[in-house]
């Protein structure tokens, strides 16, 4: 139950990346919202949420275009993460998908490139493809998403698998399955976890989380919203990123401010009682 003293996680290249970044799922779907979405990301950058997560899947490239517009003029300040479809996860597929993503984002490198989820292509081929991109300087590092502990162990046993620098998985107060085995494994092997749906847009028991009396009471005691408490909880131990997606300006501001909320041991205990940690293995939650 350690309370973190810092608000950044040190990345493989030594750069320090703030705990709370920005998601982009559902952005780029409607032309009428484009400017609002670009402005939301830019405001988030100005408020310190410098990690942005996107994927070729989101709006079939539309979200990457929004990201591209938002990072103009500040590319090197931003920590850019995108993801490849599983059916692109071999040497040739990754090379083509990466190039297309870079073009949409108007940049010549990504800070992190992830396998979106595991498909039929053997992990060996994904490692090869990712390493090729890294050697070419198109990506600074690579990782995975939606891999459970057994998949991570398999990856770790493959040549080059230990270069995997992150696992992006669903994690929030009401979906704590990873605490049973995946999170301890990730900590033991030094692989940071990036939590998606951190304010419970998806996953188990998502409805009602933000209205739960415990969340509401703790929020009131800090003078913040239950969503901010949900974010503060995800990043509580100092080694998990949260990547909330927000377009509304008030949401962006709240999410950035959540980085400085510290939950007390008593509040963490109250949350544990209302949303108990897992006592046995649960299938990896995902959306
Ligand atoms: P989130 O838990 O981040 O929830 C997003 C929703 O919450 C939006 O409707 C947003 O509204 C709203 N919201 C944001 N901030 C607040 C706030 N402070 N108070 C109240 N509501 C708020 O879910 P996501 O599914 O978007 O997950 C986050 C990101 O993780 C994605 O955008 C994506 O980048 C990534 N992801 C990765 C997956 C994977 O398979 N690897 C799967 C799913 C997500 P509004 O936009 O109107 O402000």
What does this structure look like?
- Helix 1 (34-46) crosses helix 2, helix 1 packs parallel to helix 9 and helix 7 (213-222) crosses helix 8 (226-234).
- The longest helix has 15 residues, at 91-105.
- The model has no long low-confidence stretch (mean pLDDT 95).
- 36% of the residues lie in helices and 12% in strands.
- With 287 residues, it is of the alpha/beta class.
- It has one domain (8-274): NADP-dependent oxidoreductase domain (TIM Barrel, Alpha-Beta Barrel), CATH 3.20.20.100.
- It has ten helices and nine strands.
- The chain has helices spanning 34-46, 62-71, 91-105, 123-135, 149-156, 182-188, 213-222, 226-234, 249-257, 265-274, and strands at 8-10, 16-18, 51-53, 79-84, 112-115, 142-145, 167-170, 193-196, 240-242.
- The chain has a seven-stranded parallel β-sheet. It has a two-stranded antiparallel ribbon with strand order 1-2.
- It binds NADPH dihydro-nicotinamide-adenine-dinucleotide phosphate (NDP).
Secondary-structure map:
Layout (H helix, E strand, L loop, with lengths): L7 E3 L5 E3 L15 H13 L4 E3 L8 H10 L7 E6 L6 H15 L6 E4 L7 H13 L6 E4 L3 H8 L10 E4 L11 H7 L4 E4 L16 H10 L3 H9 L5 E3 L6 H9 L7 H10 L13
Parallel strand pairs: 3-4, 4-5, 5-6, 6-7, 7-8, 8-9
Antiparallel strand pairs: 1-2
Helix pairs in contact: 1-2, 1-9, 3-4, 7-8
The protein binds NADPH dihydro-nicotinamide-adenine-dinucleotide phosphate.
The site of NADPH dihydro-nicotinamide-adenine-dinucleotide phosphate has 27 residues, from helix 9.
